[in-house]
Amino acid sequence: MVERIRRFVKEYGLIQPKDKVLAGISGGPDSVCLLFVLRQLQEELDFGLMAVHVNHGLRGEDADEDQCFVEKLCKEQKIPLTCVSLDVQEKAAGEKLTLEEAGRICRYKTFRHLAAEYGCKRIAVGHHGDDQAETMLFHLFRGTGLKGLAGMKPIRGDIIRPLLCVERREILSWLQQQGIAWRTDDTNQDTVYSRNLIRHRILACAKEQINSETIAHMCKASEELREIEAFLEEETKHALQLCVKKEEGGCFITAGVFRRLHPVLAGRVLRTCMEEAGGSLKDIDRRHIRLLGELFGKRTGSVLNLPGGRRAVRRYTGVQLWRRTEDKEPPAEPAIRPGIPGSCRVKGRKWVFSLESAEKYQIIPEKTYTKWFDYDKIENYPEIRRRLPGDYLEINQACGRKKLKKYFIDEKVPAEERGEILLLADGNHIIWIPGMRISERYKVTEHTKDILKVQIYGGEEDGRKNPNHDSGGRG
Questions:
Q1: In a domain, 228, yes or no
Q2: Given a cut of 50, is residue 183 above it in pLDDT?
Q3: What backbone phi and psi angles, to 5 degrees, belong to 455?
Q4: Most confident of 211-215, 330-334, 342-346
Q5: pLDDT of residue 230
Q6: Across the chain, how many H-helices and E-strands are there?
Q7: Is the whole model's pTM more than 0.85, yes or no?
Q8: Strand-pair partners of 303
Q9: Is 10 part of any domain?
């Protein structure tokens, strides 16, 4: 295993002679393996090695014992260690993030701060082959392109992943053979978290019932996808040089050359132009790329307004794309991510979220401001927000979709009121329009296992005195 990792490190140039490497060590088997393998490779590859441990302050005595374990380990191996304690719970609450998201942000911010302080060029983390397969599926399920489906890169900027070429079972076997101890984090078994669900149920089932080499095959596919993506990136750069001219605030895409591009390259060119014009691809999806491409077939002077203040106009010889600096739309109100279970107050109303186990033949009551949803069908973290471009809901059991705008029109909701209505959303899929309807997709059925119950109470400080009260009316 160590030999495979050594070849992997050299093949991808993860560590160069005289580099300083900062390794993130949690105390779990993956990071402990990382530390010992780097220690073995240190003399041969001639690099400096330091370690950092981040105590998230979430697991009480267990977290403190993890830190003590890492401190003892690094002392025995004579590896300089820095321990940092953070309040991840406070960050998650303050920025409306999940604990998982807040922890990741805090860790990498700490890693980079210390790397800069100590002059470390590389930050080593313990992601392995199982993590790669999990990431590929996670991106696929949530919606992604080729780059996301390829998963994690062995090296991305200052982050290196030396263990990406081995599986977790190999890591555990090697640690046992070497007589090396590690710490176990019980929260890694909690399938409430999407990644744990993929790891312990979906991938475990694939390995047991489909192919025991599932992880190896997915990692091989990841390598091939990265190679394809790298090739397409080079071709896209060449295509951009041929047909795109940069302008102040945007660009001009020449129609003649653009039309001769392969559809795959054409889409990537438009995507790149959108990103450069808007500064990011936030709120941009395949539909917007398609609409921009269709503009080349429209008459001169045709205008297309796009998210993020972008505007495209069909000119005689091509399409001009830029970001408007006048008449900017006001920034969208930030979405609220409620605790589940938990409650939050939005615009004077109290939203209460709770989880229940479904019962066979359970009857779901009809109430206006209390609803029950199939929790397992929610793909993203539920958010309370106002409408956004691309919002839709399913209106029948055949998965028939209707744009939210069209639904409001059909229900004769005045245009001036539509932007004020609070929604419960799963990405762009609207779970519930309070006071009106829920999407068919999330209705509780005989196959439902976990139920998300959402209640909205009226204006008093602590909600309505009678928790069973269910007010009527729109919104």
A1: no
A2: yes
A3: -125, 140
A4: 211-215
A5: 93
A6: 16, 21
A7: no
A8: 313
A9: yes
